[in-house]
Amino acid sequence: MDDSFQKDLPDILRRSAEANVRGLVVTGICVATSAAAQALCEGPVAAASGCHLGFTAGVHPHNAKGCGPTTLADLRRLAAHPRCVAIGECGLDYNRNYSPPDVQEVWFERQVELAKELRLPLFLHCRDAGERFAEILSRHMPLPAPAVVHCFTGSRAELDLFLGLGLYIGITGWICDDRPERGGADLAALLPYIPRDRLMIETDAPYLVPRSIKPSKARPGRNEPALLPHVLQAAADALGTTPEELGASTTAVACKVFGLSLG
Question: What domains appear along the chain, each with residue ranges and CATH number?
């Protein structure tokens, strides 16, 4: 869980419920943040919120260089918690290379193996590494549980590659970005090629505040789950459907992937 959520967490969860966001998946990006996500999910603030909270346990490729002899054991322990819904966020990021690519690859594959061992879903990250990402995953097919590519921003070729592996596709507020150099319109144009039963929507909070919030002075500096309806609206517009219809299908997909029961 990002530190920016610490000071007003009850309000964040209240706004989520008011926006009809009934289930939240809190992402772990290292052992420490995965443990913090677990603590949030089992704590009193979550219990009083009216939202169903789950968490992921994993190491982001940016943090792979910090992995060590106890990392897998720590993740295995966290994954045993009943609120752990997936292994991840794990994968490859050759855009920034905060961890060396060879180290990223080692720890990506180890987390794929862990997810297979535990029969848990995978919450995946891929940036500028599509072919290598798919090559590593393909060695482990078929997977025993679903796997979703979080915050997809790739090309049509990457989309086809990932769909061919049976992966689910997560779309975030990137689709709301109207700056030509950011590719929001290009992402929107790819949505019709994603089968509806493989499409999810996400916030990636606290990042990717939807730029469809106008005027810009009304746009908050931090993303949060209550802003998910803006992503839903942009995705519905791209698909020529209603937010109600798309909201129902993407909720069903998220429940299937993560084993959620939202009532």
Answer: 3-258 (3.20.20.140)
